[in-house]
């Protein structure tokens, strides 16, 4: 809400206003998640010092005998809390606001306040935040993607209901095409943030010795290495080739070429669209000229 007021005072164009507001909100929401992850890392690993008394025996703090469960519980709490916030805003903010504006239209303050607008950037932010939570906690809570799917199924119909019942049309039309790439970029940022704790937990942190499917292993990734070692030699050779630079570098080059091809194709389509728009404008001007000529001749 504060960022929405600030961006109106800054008087940016609509497309840039949406992007800067979304960027500020994403930074605020994802920064809180990053702070939580850093706090959990500090508590579980004794601030990265395995020589401290709490971490010397197991490689992690003995205060968290099942640290994977603790991380999964935190992600589950955030998921449930996000759902509760959405429900509370609809029931105790948007619905009462609609009732007050509808049944007390003479009140100047309520007339100035008006009905709730359905803000697309804010809802996109909620999706990015929820998906980042799901990606972050999927390794530690395997049922979290299922719960996230059920959550967003409920949220979809709830948002649809509040859109038709409580919200009014936006004063300025939102063009999805102008911000679609930016939304995907923000989602990529959430994916990168969620990959960091997952990769660190798989390759650097010792699994819990008291519980979990990886107990007794030095790292989670060691289980994958042991599983590959019992495969036939042909399968081992194939997997080693897939994980080598001889496969990764050509794949990266091919994907880069394909990406540049798509960018060039997009640019050519954009130029074609601009040309067609120019032709339509010229044809519209020609039609207006012909209409004026016909009206002058008829007089």
Features:
299 residues, mainly alpha, two-stranded parallel sheet, 10 helices, 2 strands, 75% helix
| Widest sheet, order of strands | 1-2
Helix run count: 10
Low-pLDDT segments, ≥5 res = none
Structural class: mainly alpha
Residues in helix, %:
over 70%
Chain-averaged pLDDT: 82
Topology pattern, helix = H, strand = E: HHHHEHHEHHHH
The backbone outline, from C-alpha atoms, is: flat
Radius of gyration: 27 Å
How many strands in all? Answer: 2
CA(first)-CA(last) distance: 59 Å
Describe the sheet with the most strands. Answer: 2 strands, parallel
Q: What portion of the residues fall into strands of 2 or more residues?
A: under 5%
Write a concise synopsis of the structure shown.
The protein has 299 residues and is mostly helical. The protein is built from ten helices and two strands, in the order ααααβααβαααα. The longest helix is centred in the C-terminal third of the chain and has 54 residues, at 245-298.
Give an overview in words.
By secondary structure, the protein is an all-alpha fold. It has helices at 2-10, 14-44, 67-103, 108-113, 120-137, 144-165, 176-203, 221-229, 233-242, 245-298, and strands at residues 116-117, 167-168. Strands 1-2 form a two-stranded parallel ribbon.
């Amino acid at each position: 809400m504060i960022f929405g007021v600030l961006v109106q005072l800054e008087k940016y164009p609509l497309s840039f206003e949406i992007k800067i507001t979304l960027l500020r909100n994403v930074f605020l929401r994802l920064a809180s998640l990053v702070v939580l992850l850093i706090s959990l890392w500090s508590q579980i690993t004794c601030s990265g010092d395995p020589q401290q008394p709490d971490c010397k025996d197991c490689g992690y703090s003995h205060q968290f005998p099942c640290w994977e469960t603790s991380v999964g519980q935190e992600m589950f709490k955030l998921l449930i809390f996000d759902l509760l916030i959405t429900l509370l805003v609809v029931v105790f903010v948007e619905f009462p606001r609609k009732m007050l504006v509808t049944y007390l239209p003479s009140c100047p303050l309520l007339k100035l306040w008006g009905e709730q607008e359905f803000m697309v950037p804010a809802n996109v932010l909620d999706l990015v935040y929820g998906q980042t939570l799901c990606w972050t906690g999927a390794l530690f809570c395997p049922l979290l993607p299922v719960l996230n799917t059920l959550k967003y199924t409920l949220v979809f119909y709830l948002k649809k209901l509040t859109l038709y019942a409580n919200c009014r049309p936006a004063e300025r039309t939102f063009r999805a095409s102008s911000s679609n790439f930016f939304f995907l970029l923000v989602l990529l940022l959430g994916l990168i943030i969620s990959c960091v704790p997952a990769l660190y937990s798989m390759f650097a942190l010792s699994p819990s010795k008291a519980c979990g499917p990886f107990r007794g292993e030095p790292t989670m990734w060691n289980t994958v290495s042991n599983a590959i070692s019992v495969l036939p030699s042909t399968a081992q050779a194939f997997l080693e080739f897939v994980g080598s630079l001889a496969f990764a570098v050509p794949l990266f080059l091919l994907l880069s070429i394909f990406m540049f091809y798509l960018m060039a194709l997009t640019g050519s389509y954009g130029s074609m669209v601009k040309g067609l728009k120019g032709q339509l404008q010229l044809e519209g001007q020609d039609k207006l000229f012909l209409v004026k000529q016909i009206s002058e001749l008829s007089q």
